[in-house]
Amino acid sequence: MNKKKTNTKGTIDWMITLVPLGIVIALCILFFLLPEQSNAILSQIRFFFGDTFGTYYLVIGLGIFLLSLYIAGSKYGDIVLGEKGEKPKYSFFSWGAMMFTCGLAADILFYSFSEWVLYATDPHLEEMGSIQEWAGVYPLFHWSFIPWGFYLVLAVAFGFMLHVRKRNRQKYSEACRPILGKYTDGWAGRIIDLLAVFALLAGTATTFSVATPLMATIIGELFHITVSRTVINVIILLITCAVYTYSLLHGFKGISRLANICIYLFFGLLAVVLLFGGETRYIIETGLTSLGTMIQNFIGLSTYTDPLRTSNFPQTWTIYYWAYWMVWCVAAPFFIGSISRGRTVRQTILGGYVFGVGSTLVSFIILGNYSMGMQVTGKADFIAQYLKDGDLYGMIVSMIKTLPCAPVIMVVVLLTMIAFYATSFDSIALTASCYSYRKLEEGEQPHRGIQLMWCLLLIALPIALLFAESSMSNLQSVSIVAAFPIGVVILLIAGSFLKDAKKYINEEKKDLN
């Protein structure tokens, strides 16, 4: 993509730019001035959406996954995202690396260490069986096929819109044009775009608020300093400033290079834990067993609603995760669609499952089962540590400290998370900046001033949430609330793609005749 700067003031969509700006500023003020009251309201809203409309999120999740398999296996799978006969711009490895790192890679690394503990301390696990049987199953379920299904269905829809139909409005509403028609340019389209921007802000706020404290804790451990909220906020600022500079200077070529570095660091870390952590046999055997259990019970896990509310497990976890990935669908699929030019729809979906889901599963199997192996064999008691002080970040550092050359491993984890954040934030900032323009021609990019504004806007809300010391539950609430209306839009985009792709195939047949 050429770095052609756009600076025409008349093309800026001031409504989409200023309304989110005003709302985020207002929310930040509330969290700074009234932290306790704000958290209480968030908790109530989360209960309303997650408890009352939980089935809504579950049905959309399973439906989108099944739709992805249908699209890949149907006539739509043959469509090339670009010109006929066009070859992919990136190798499979570079493409997969960018795809994996543009989304929730930093969160995947964070939760790979710790998520089994969260389930092991949940009442639902006792209902299901033992820690050994189920604590390693749910992480694989919550981070694999359904979440990546959201990404990949929308990625091919956006890729088709950008590379085949060559539309110059890089917005959620434009992907709905085949169904909405002229209403895309009216209030219906404006509302969709505003919802998309709010979802984008919510996803970013949750991601940075949840995982960034781990980086601060590692820094505190390495340099023997006390970790404070100020340190965490400074880390966010430093990361985002570095990312912004990097993206301006290097563009997609730089993102590709950084993504490759991320993957090398990531798989290097996994190899060290697997080969030298002392739990190799347990990791492999438990990982394979958990994967089999997840696949065998996939439909049941996807549709479990806990109607009697004996543990509220799906409301606490499954519904939250589907909502979390739904709000991230505003940014990551646009980026995946952009870098998938030259690939077929089938290659994009199946390749995404192979690289994206494969890398995710390997991460959870190795990092999660390493610490769980130490727990069940009595070599460590991470569950007791977590129950004692509720410090998830300190617990992860304790897990890392059991590895050989622990300080080096901590540095690798820290650098990997920073690199993951870099590629993720670049795709987010670029997507958000595109929303500030009524249209962008092929090769055009948003003005640097607009990108800077969005960079600052995207980090403001997570800093406010950290300042208010929001709990994990309240951080999750932000995504659950924002995902509720976005679910309808995702279905609209999927339907629009099927309609437009069918029309395109019919046009191709007419041209051949």
UniProtKB/TrEMBL annotation:
Name of the protein in its database record: BCCT family transporter
Entries under PANTHER family matching the protein: HIGH-AFFINITY CHOLINE TRANSPORT PROTEIN (PTHR30047:SF7), HIGH-AFFINITY CHOLINE TRANSPORT PROTEIN-RELATED (PTHR30047)
Family assignment from sequence similarity: Belongs to the BCCT transporter (TC 2.A.15) family.
Top-level taxon in the UniProt lineage: Bacteria
Transmembrane segments: 12-34, 54-72, 92-113, 145-164, 194-219, 231-249, 261-284, 319-337, 349-370, 408-437, 449-468, 480-498
InterPro entries per the UniProt record, alphabetical: BCCT_transptr (IPR000060)
Compartments it resides in: Cell membrane
